[in-house]
Amino acid sequence: MIKRFETLRTTTTAEYIIETRETDELPIGFKETVQKGVPGKKVNVYKITKVGDTIVGRQIESEEVIQEPTREIVLIGTATETFETITEKETVEFETEIRTDPTKPKTYQFENQAGKNGSVEKTYQIRKLNGKEAGKTLTSETVIDQPVKRIITVGSAVEKVEYTTEVKDVDFETVIEYDYTKPKGYEEVRQEGEKGRIESQYKLTYLNDELVDRTLVNENTLKEKKNKIVVKGLGVVVSIRSVVVVEEKDFNKVIEKDETQPEGYSKITQVGSPGTITTTYEVTYEDDVEVSRKEISKVENPKAVDEITVIGTSKMTERTLDEQVDVPFKTVYVSDNTLPAGESVVDEEGSPGQIIRTFLVSYRNGKEIGRTIVSEHKITDAVNRVVRVGNATPIVETTELIDETESIDYNTFKEFSDQLPAGTTKVIQPGKKGQKTNRYSVTKVNGEETSRSFVESNITTDPVDEIIQVGTRIKEIREASETSRIPFTIKVRKDTTKPIGYRVTEAEGQDGEKTDLYKVTYINGTETKREHLKTTVVKEAVDKVIVEGAGVERALFEIQEEKITSTTEYRNDDTLPEGETKITQVGEEGLLRKTIEKRYFNDELRSTKLVDSKLIKEATPTIILVGTKHVPTIKVEQDIQTEKIAYKTQKD
Questions:
Q1: Separation CA 54–CA 70 (nearest Å)
Q2: How far is CA 379 from CA 324, 329, 441, 454, 612, in A?
Q3: Do residues 346 and 381 lie in contact, with contact meaning Cβ atoms separated by under 8 Å?
Q4: pLDDT number for residue 646
Q5: Spatial separation of the C-alpha atoms in residues 552 and 565, rounded to whole Å
Q6: pLDDT tier, 116 (very low <50, low <70, confident <90, very high otherwise)
Q7: Closest to 362 measured CA to CA, from 315, 404, 402, 405
Q8: How far apart are CA 118 and CA 142, in angstroms?
Q9: In 235-253, which positions are buried (b, 16+ CB within 10 angstroms) versus exposed (e)?
Q10: What pLDDT digit, counting tens, does each position of 447-495 carry?
């Protein structure tokens, strides 16, 4: 048999490995395959020996792994799984509704209703592994506040803008110029007025072919107006006058306290009378209008007389007082026939008794002013004196109450007055004595007083104080001089080279100075009368000159249009081959309209300012597509080989 050798190539599968890993991201008992296992592949090359068709031997010649197996990874949970419920409040965003208004331009936008966010309360079930959140599931939700929709209205009307030009006359104005060098009443037309003419350009705005706005955008002066100028005199007449002002001065109300009168007592002891204040001013007038005044003198004559009211401050009190008093004994006469008439014999000497007598005592400021017996308590009886007398004369004993009056001296007060000449006096209130009554209990025998005891005392008439005015007035006359200012006047000069509102002091004013001589009368050192003798001007006043601008300012508005250059925009296109370009849009220039304010002073341009800018037409860019598609390049190489050929020599 013939042996044959063949090569056998086989592909086999390499099993993958299963790897388990513990994780605290899964609960206990849970498994999760995070990576699937993929078997590998390998190619084995064998040398096979055959005899006929029968394989009699195999020998591996090579082994090549063409795909490594991928191990399978399985996670095994080790975490403790717990659940809890939480509630959260969340914001619900409001929606915006756009409404169109065909009566408004497209630039119009108005918020009809402001949007307001709502809120919702959501309940979640939180899944935790080892205390860490691993999952969150919504279980319920409750709407707390519904969101309020925002509503906006935008215009959708077709807007059209046109421009129109109008020419009209401008009336001149009458300008009054005042000249302080001319007298009042002077009037002169320095320049007659002429109307001007202006050309006005208006912007007309239409919505749906209806005119809704007319705005002045530019104004050119074709002819300047010439104002009518009238000059009026405004000279100021300055005068100085003496003004006397007489005013009434209220009297003061004086309260005097009298400790001899009880509380609640009130009596006007001097009637008040108002005084008169005469004030003399030096008043400066400009055109009969007062501009300043200065006080020259102030005299009070007659002076106000105070109203004096006397009020009682005495505190009246009463209290009881016990005193031990001797009770005089009585003499008892006993008729004795054995004694001749007119003779008497004392059989027994008398001795006084004693009693406790209780008085109700009245006090004024702690000083006793009267007392009254309220009760008596006997301690010992009096022992009568017994006298025997001849019975020829009868004995009569009586007891009676006797009132006796006593005068109270008045006080004398002196008041000093500048209404009386010095050294003179005047009684303005005569003094008058008061009176009090004392009551006694008197015992008489045969009409003769044998004893008496005090019962009470009361004031029946209060004394009246004597008030005497003592003169202190001293009169003297002196001359006095006073220096005062002479106010300067203000003159205004118009300057047409300066703008209206310009105001500068060209020359400062200076006050003048004058001296006035007066004859002054003084009483007790107080000025009461002043007589003007003469005025001497020491320094003349210098006028103050003020320059005011009278130049004409005006503003013109000019419309300028500017072109907006178109730009070029390149865009990548993956449908075009690399290196190719294609223009898909040809750009167009835009248009910007500007309103410029130009300010002139006396027809000379002084400033310019942009006041409005509006985009009439937007510029569109030129769009060029640039190819980015990659096209494979087929490279053809030409291999040129040079072969050397030996040359041959040819013989002729």
A1: 38
A2: 9, 14, 20, 20, 126
A3: no
A4: 41
A5: 41
A6: very high
A7: 315
A8: 12
A9: beeeebeeeeeeeeeebee
A10: 777 777 777 778 888 888 888 887 777 777 778 888 888 888 888 888 8
Distance CA 323, CA 376 (A): 10
Q: What is the pLDDT of residues 359-376, one digit of tens each?
A: 888 777 777 777 778 888
Measured CA to CA, the distance from residue 590 to residue 564 in angstroms comes to 5
Q: How far is CA 342 from the centre of its chain?
A: 113
Condensed to tens digits (0 to 9), the pLDDT of residues 234-267 reads: 666 667 788 888 888 888 888 888 777 777 778 8
Residue 232: what residue type?
Answer: K
Bin 15: left if φ > 0, else alpha if -120 < ψ < 50, else beta. Answer: beta
pLDDT of residue 120: 93
Spatial separation of the C-alpha atoms in residues 591 and 284, rounded to whole Å: 70
Burial of 200 (0-12, 13-18, 19+ CB in 10 A): middle
Instruction: Give residue for tokens 């500048």.
Output: 418
Amino acid identity, position 328 = P
What distance in Å separates the CA atoms of residue 396 and residue 411, rounded to the nearest whole number?
47
Contacts of 648 (CB under 8 A, 6+ apart): none
Q: Which letter does DSSP use for residue 366 in this model?
A: T
Q: Report pLDDT for 79.
A: 85
Q: How many CB atoms lie within 10 A of CB 491?
A: 19
Output Rg (C-alpha) for the chain, integer angstroms.
68
> Backbone dihedral region of 180: left (phi > 0), alpha (psi from -120 to 50 degrees) or beta?
alpha
pTM over 0.90: no
8 A C-beta contact, residue 113 and residue 148: yes
CA atoms within 13 A on the CB side of 218: 16
Query: Tokens standing for 413?
Result: 């007060």
3-state helix/strand/coil string of 342-355: CCEEEEECCECEEE
| Dihedral angle over CA of 105, 109, 113, 118, nearest 10 | 140
CA angle, 389 then 393 then 399, to 5°? 90
Three-class HEC string of 447-479: CEEEEEEEEEEEEEECCECEEEEEEEECEEEEE
How many C-beta atoms lie closer than 10 Å to residue 383's C-beta? 14
> What are the backbone angles phi and psi of residue 434, rounded to the nearest 5°?
-95, -175
Q: Which amino acid is at 283?
A: V
CB proximity list for 127: less than 8 A, separation 6 or greater: 81, 82, 83, 133, 134, 135, 136, 137
Answer for the pair 453, 401: CB distance below 8 angstroms, yes or no: no
Backbone angles phi, psi at 563, to 5 degrees: -85, 140
